[in-house]
Design brief:
Length: 159
């Protein structure tokens, strides 16, 4: 996936940490959010766009549009930070043939039915299964809250 410098799971999508630490630290010129619900809600899209740092473009799109755009190499000459809420989206992209080699798990909040596997990461059974499926497909899945933190293999927390 040419042009993508980081792929992150963070249920907050675009927020202070993504905007200030990740986007500026990685010197991205675009933050892409793939989320069908948000992409179809103009209010949520507006709020996320306001959270992005000035000078950084945003793409808030559906899975289908993302697959089409990425397969067409639309972002090849950019520096894109891709953010999704749930691992299922990334598993869908991999299953569609996109070459995702590494994923960073940031924040997945505690919700009803989740089990906390590490500080800031709580998973529903299906999210755990999706992460395990990504790992089984050869994707390097790490946990890292901020760029200064050490990367830790997510499989350590899924045992």
């Amino acid at each position: 996936m040419q042009g993508f410098v980081n792929i992150r799971i963070d249920d907050r999508l675009i927020h202070g940490q993504v905007a200030t630490r990740w986007a500026t630290g990685l010197r991205v010129n675009r933050i892409m959010v793939i989320d069908d619900e948000v992409a179809n809600d103009s209010v949520q899209k507006s709020i996320l766009r306001m959270a992005a740092p000035s000078g950084i473009s945003t793409s808030i799109i559906t899975e289908e549009k993302a697959i089409t755009n990425i397969q067409a190499d639309k972002y090849a000459k950019q520096r894109v930070l891709l953010v999704v809420r749930r691992p299922k989206v990334l598993l869908d992209l991999v299953n569609a043939g996109l070459d995702i080699t590494k994923i960073n798990v940031g924040n997945m909040s505690n919700r009803e039915g989740t089990v906390q596997v590490k500080k800031s990461v709580s998973l529903l059974p299906e999210e755990r299964a999706d992460l395990e499926a990504l790992i089984a497909k050869g994707v390097d899945v790490t946990a890292q809250m901020v760029p200064d933190d050490a990367e830790v293999e997510m499989s350590k927390f899924l045992k």
